[in-house]
């Protein structure tokens, strides 16, 4: 798979494709080459898995007082 298709797979995994990219993805998935289609889908899946693992590793609990501050700020904006 070439670099353009890998970049496209990453955009799909991130959910950040525009209409032009969507068309390119559809062409790739409609391609008669099952190996190419499988490689693309595998790249999307691996990217999603990597992003999920990174999010899990990097996640932190918000400060306990955050909820109270947010609710107070929302209450202050209510008419």
Brief digest:
Keywords: Transcription, Transcription regulation. The chain is mainly alpha-helical.
How would you describe this structure to a colleague?
The chain is an all-alpha fold. Helices cover 77% and strands 0% of the residues. The chain has one domain (3-77): Orthogonal Bundle (Arc Repressor Mutant, subunit A). It has helices at 3-14, 19-30, 34-58, 66-77. α1 (3-14) crosses α3 (34-58). The chain is elongated and about 60 Å long. Residues 6-51 form the Anti-sigma-K factor RskA N-terminal domain.
Q: What is the rounded distance between the termini? A: 57 Å
Fraction of residues in helix = over 70%
Q: Biggest sheet, in brief?
A: none
CATH class: Mainly Alpha
Q: Rounded to an integer, what's the Rg over CA atoms?
A: 20 Å
Instruction: Name the beta content range.
Output: under 5%
**Element-level helix/strand string:** HHHH
**What is the CATH topology descriptor?**
Arc Repressor Mutant, subunit A
Total number of helices: 4
């Amino acid at each position: 798979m070439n670099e353009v298709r890998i970049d496209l797979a990453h955009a799909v995994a991130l959910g950040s494709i525009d209409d032009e990219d969507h068309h390119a993805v559809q062409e790739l998935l409609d391609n008669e080459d099952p190996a190419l289609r499988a490689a693309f889908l595998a790249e999307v899946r691996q990217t999603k898995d990597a992003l999920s693992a990174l999010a899990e590793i990097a996640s932190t609990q918000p400060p306990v007082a955050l909820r109270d501050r947010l609710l107070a700020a929302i209450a202050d904006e209510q008419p």
